[in-house]
Amino acid sequence: MSGPLTPRPLDPSTPSAESDSRTSFHDYLETLNRRKWLAIAVFIAVFGLSVLSIVRTEPVFEAHATVMVTASNPSDIFGGAQNIFWSNQPNTANYVALLQSRSMAEKVAERLVDPKMLSVSSVSARPVRDADVIQIVVSAPGPATAVAVANAYVETYQQYDLDLSRLDVSAIRRFIEDQLALVGGRLDSSERNLAEFKTSHQLTDIDAETRTLIDRQSQLAAQYQQVITEAEGSRAELAHVQSRIEQEGKGLTDKLGGISSPLVSSLQAAMNQLEVEKTNLIIRGFGENSERIQGLDRQIDSTRARLRIESQVLISQQGFVDPVGHLSGLFESALTLSTGLAASKARQEALASAVSGYDVELARLPEAERLLARLTRDVETDRRVHALLSERYEEARIQEVGRISSVRIIDRAQGAGQTKPNVRSSLSFGLMLALALAFGSVFAAEYLDTSVHGPRELERRGYSVLGSIPQLSTTGRRLRRRSEDVTSHLITHTDVESSGAEAFRMLRTALAFASAERTLRTIAITSPGPSEGKSTIAVNLASVLAQAGSRVLLIDADLRHPMLHTVFKRRKKPGLSDLIISSSSPDEAIFATGLDGLFCLPCGTIPPSPADLLTLNATRALLRRLAGEYDYVVIDTPPVLVAADSPIIGAMVDTTVMVVRAGRTALEAIDHAHTAMLGGGAHLTGLVLNDVNRSGRYGRYYYYYYKYHYRYSHHTADTPQAGGERPEADS
Question: Is the dihedral of CA 638, 644, 648, 651 positive or negative?
Fold first, then answer.
């Protein structure tokens, strides 16, 4: 048997030691062990829901494609302005907005094999920082769908940008194509008229002088048609520019005509004069490769460059709001085109005057020869114009094909990765959440639970703990003594080698040391409330006292809900109440329990008012008489907070032991019961903590003692052992 357990004063106001006030790591482990099933249930529930969420989540795959937007700055076929649809510096935000627009989605749907693929996909575009690069991200329920939609987006966007960059050149090409058809029809008609005239007048050809005159006039007429064609192309391009300015600038087209300065006007006039001088030289017969023509071309190019620079300065001084980043380029193109149209008009006038002069010379010829010359001139002029338009058409077509998109596909979507559900991260998150909620639920339940769980909690509140009784096992053996069954309430006899039996022997020792300074003959066993095991404690305490060689009387003083007669399977009356009321001999009510040295006095007849019965002097006299006949009298009393009987009995006996049940008895209830007992004059030796979890820190000691002490000891029980059942708790 272990050393003495000295009880401390039963005063809850006494502060506990500093070491007891600190929560140790073992306390946390004890809490987790005590509520492990709650933690396991919460963990399984939360983690199971996480797994179920992963299983039921529709998979989502993500594909990536990357494009780069570069500046585009080609020249048109007539030597006009730069590409009017793009500024020198790309505005990535505009391209991102275009990629995410509804119109772009409609174009992509037309490219896809199954347009429904786009309806189940989510598309986003995001620029790459510090780069003219845009990443297109497509999320779809299948990897093939995500890849197909991503690639369709970059291909459609590249084609859209290419079509947009060719828009001005395509318009000019179509204009020249229409002019070619018109001139071709006119040429056929002219040749047919010439042939018919020669046949009808039997004329074969004209003289050399007239031929020279016709060649010069047809050459000038062809140049005149060329200037007209270039002017029409410039007008078409200017119309596109003005349309873009109207769209981008919201009504700024009208301000275009007001943008001017004296220097710009003088440069425009100088350029017109140079064009007229060049035209006059051509009329006089100077070739394109002549030194004077080339000198004028250099002056024209220099004037055009100065005009462009001055136009940029002038436009920057206007303070226009540029919402998309290239209005200034559009205005510059418009000014350049307007200047070119003015120069074309001056050339047209000079060429028209020269052609008219040749008409005067042709009018001096005889009528037949004059008509033949005119028809021949028309044919030559139409041929020259047709050849010129054919050349320009080929140039426009080549330039149209040569235009490239400013959008470069850097990476096409090669595969799609699954983003939802992300099994690894989702399982990790679910695991962490399940663990957090499991621990949180344990400590939340512990915080809300006001019941006592271990001796340390009682000691912190200043209570003296006489002993801790573990959860009693139901696998013990049954004892038969004198043909009477003893139930498992008597664990000290049914399984003497168990940790529970040893705990009661330790309780006996603690009471012995508690009575070292005073006589301890009568012991009352009570509890704050019902179902806390006080009857079991009373029976087993009486049993271990009897095993030590003492004559022990066990009295059932719970006159409201008696239990001891059922423990020993005996009659209930006559008993305590009958002995108090009548003057009969105690021997008529006391019966032998079948255990050596242990006797029992049942409750007897249930009185209408047990508290009034117990206050009688006869009760005190009876207890004094029984204390003189037995070494120990153990009294099982009602719960303190249920009836007033316990404080009355507590005042009559030598000591009172209060039983509290781990995990059930509230600390506040213990305080109230303690106050009530002290108020009634009872002497409380200490508390007994019942039903302590065997797997906890308080139960492991008993297991250790049972396993090693009895294995190597030579102790043999004097009584045969029998199995028993787990004791029922008090009601």
Answer: positive
Residue 538 is given by DSSP the state H
Within 8 A by CB and 6+ apart from 338, the residues are 238
Two tokens at 695? 């797997």
CA angle 471, 24, 464 (to 5 degrees): 55
As a whole number of Å, the end-to-end CA separation of the chain is 33
Query: What gap in Å lies between CA 90 and CA 355, rounded to an integer?
Result: 48
Measure the CA dihedral 109/114/119/123, to 10°: -60
Distance from C-alpha of 159 to C-alpha of 404, rounded to nearest angstrom: 10
Residues 6+ apart with CB under 8 A from 403: 74, 162, 165, 166, 169
Largest distance between two CA atoms of the chain: 178
What share of the chain has pLDDT > 90, as a percent?
20
3-class state of residue 690 by DSSP: strand
Distance CA 316, CA 328 (A): 7
- The answer to whether the beta carbons of residues 520 and 605 sit under 8 Å apart is no
**pLDDT higher than threshold 80 for residue 254:** no
Contact 654, 683 (CB under 8 A): yes
Residues 6+ apart with CB under 8 A from 26: 697
What is the C-alpha separation between 507 and 455, in angstroms, rounded?
14
DSSP 127: E
316: CB partners within 8 A, 6+ apart: 328
Of the two residues 122 and 352, the one the predictor is more confident about is 122
What is the dihedral sign for C-alpha 460, 463, 464, 469?
A: negative
Residue type, 192: R
Residue 574, preceding peptide bond in cis (omega within 30° of 0): yes
According to DSSP, the β-strands at 480-481 and 484-485 are antiparallel
Task: Tell me the whole-structure pTM to 2 decimals.
Answer: 0.52
CATH fold group of domain 60-166+410-420: Alpha-Beta Plaits (3.30.70)
Residue ranges of the domains in the chain? Answer: 60-166+410-420, 185-402, 467-712
Domain range 467-712, its CATH number among 3.40.190.10, 3.90.1300.10, 3.40.50.300, 3.40.1190.20: 3.40.50.300
Cα 694–Cα 700–Cα 702 angle in degrees, nearest 5: 90
Omega before 421 cis (within 30°)?
yes
Q: Are 681 and 713 in contact (CB under 8 A)?
A: no
Determine the 3-state secondary structure of 361 from DSSP: helix
SS3 of residue 90 by DSSP = coil
Banded model confidence at residue 365, pLDDT cuts 50, 70, 90 = low
pLDDT of 309-326, one tens digit each?
A: 776 676 666 555 444 445
CA distances from 594 to 424, 504, 557, 571, 726 (A): 67, 19, 21, 14, 20
Query: What is the rounded CA–CA span in Å between residue 541 and residue 506?
Result: 10
